[in-house]
Amino acid sequence: MMGKDQYLNPHLDNSHDKDRNRWRVLNLLYYVTPDWDEPNGGNLELWPNGVEGGQTTIHSRFNRLAVMATHNNSWHSVSPIKADGFRCCVSNYYFADEALRSDDSFHVTSFRGRPEQKVRDMVLRADAGARMAIRKVFTKGVTEADHVYKRDQ
């Protein structure tokens, strides 16, 4: 759920499950807010040519299911919410034993600034680089995530 003035900058989702055994290959986004108009914001933005290449906007209208492939170049974002109220979306990831594309590589969730956010872009790129460096040393992460579904429980 996202409310007024909330947004997500362009980003890549992390490439794997928490144990780095399976590749994240699909992201499903199901929009469930009735009567949500496109000018309200909260729309999915795809950046097929990277952040510098401009985005394609997918209206987050009620009962729409967006299926997005996830790989090293699947940059996406959510436009700022301009309306009062909340835009709700149910998201689900699907994992596979193999990467979607042969040139995919492990990566952490990595954010970028929008084209007009030059300083924020530099800071976010440095942040992603630092977190990738940490993951090279601590391949499973520094701490155990406590919010992960475990099938056997």
Overview of the structural elements:
This protein is of the alpha+beta class and 153 residues long. The protein is built from 1 helix and 10 strands; from the N terminus they run ββββββββββα. It has one domain (2-137): Jelly Rolls (Sandwich). The radius of gyration is 16 Å and the shape is globular. The mean pLDDT is 93.
Biggest pleated-sheet summary = 5 strands, antiparallel
Give the overall form: globular
Number of helices: 1
Topology pattern, helix = H, strand = E = EEEEEEEEEEH
Strand content bin: 25-35%
**Fraction in helix:** 10-25%
CATH fold type: Jelly Rolls
In total, the number of domains comes to 1
Q: Let me know the average pLDDT.
A: 93
CATH level-1 class: Mainly Beta
Structural classification:
alpha+beta
Q: What is the tally of beta strands?
A: 10
CATH architecture: Sandwich
Biggest sheet strand line-up: 5-4-7-2-10
Note the gap between the termini. Answer: 27 Å
As residue ranges, the low-confidence spans are none
Radius of gyration: 16 Å
